[in-house]
Amino acid sequence: MSNASSQALINFIHESPTPFHAVSKMIGQLEAAGYQPLYEQDSWSIQAGGRYYVTRNDSSLIAFKLGKIKLEESGFRMVGAHTDSPCLQVKPQPELNKSGCWQLGVAVYGGALLSPWFDRDLSLAGRVTFTHQGKVQSRLINIESPIAIIPNLAIHLNREANKGWAINQQTELPPIIACSDDIPFDLKALLAKQLFSEYGLQEVELLDYELSFYDNQKGNIVGLNNDFITSARLDNLLSCYTGLEALLHANDEQNCLLICTDHEEVGSCSACGADGPFLEQVLTRLMPDPSALSRCIEKSILVSADNAHAQHPNYPQKHDEQHAPKINAGPVIKINGNQRYASNSITAGIFRHLCQINQVPVQTFVTRSDMGCGSTIGPIAASKVGVKTVDIGLPTWAMHSIREVAGTKDVTYMMTILKAFYEIESLY
């Protein structure tokens, strides 16, 4: 079971090289399960027992199904995750001709671990905006073949390389895409060709784009006992996928909601980020009466699912030894007294009890007292909406690398517990 779930996750991530593609992939699965689209510019007619989804910016999604009890009486069981991952984004005027090579200028998105991006086969994907037949349109593109690489400098020319060095993001990261001796390179011409290849569109005028490079190598299951899953973007497509699978397979008794937002890696402050009004506005449209909405939120709980730092056997000192999660030992409750995580004793207790009754092992993470602590969408969503929140995640190595590592058993644990959460009758 764990290998099958992990392989399905690998396939999902491989087909989701950008947040736009991840949302598109989730839409396909939702519609196959009978979920109907809602559009923010339209009026909504919501039916009891209905299944719906709404997107914003093509990169954030809220999906929900209505159960048998009124929202103000039972609230929502919510799961939250984020669709974005650290990457290299293409600049607006990126073409560089240097030393006989064509390169593309890039900007680092999020807190990327940069050194693993060297010597990797890179592909390019994203959203392109253009005019066609007099109208402004957008499409997602994915140049699946490897078209670029960022070669390391040979050890002979950098004898100090193994002692570490600061990577200059402006000069050392532009990927090489071609030799410049043959023909001039025009990125917009390449994108127009891709639009024809994927959609049959001709005579388009490129206006703008949001493109990022990604690792062409598909994820894999590794280890002598198939213990590990290795892939790009496990943070946080792993949570998007397991949350979606739990929603699709949960029974129809409870009111269930999945929110997957963009821009978490850069602070969530956008119209489609967790620090924007997306969730609050959707909930308000479902319950225009302020009193009913307040009652619903008071009876709701949000599981903010984001990856957790697993203890690395080569660097055990980087963890508080009493709070050092292990891979394949179950999901992690994340605690921080300064509200970098939103868990409290009630929400953590509910989640821990849920794990106990479903025979899912559970762990706790608290960062070392002498180290800084990251954060998630949990505290942001809690403060924007007022919903009780617990921050959890699966243990991961190499977070924010171009290739991260998680446990195959943990993927199954997460699906099990999120499905149980969606189905639980009484929270406390």
UniProtKB/TrEMBL annotation:
Entry-linked InterPro entries: Peptidase_M18 (IPR001948), Peptidase_M18_dom2 (IPR023358)
Required cofactor names: Zn(2+)
Listed GO biological process terms: proteolysis
A Pfam short name: Peptidase_M18
EC number: 3.4.11.-
GO CC annotation, single: cytoplasm
Top EC group: hydrolase
UniProt protein name: M18 family aminopeptidase
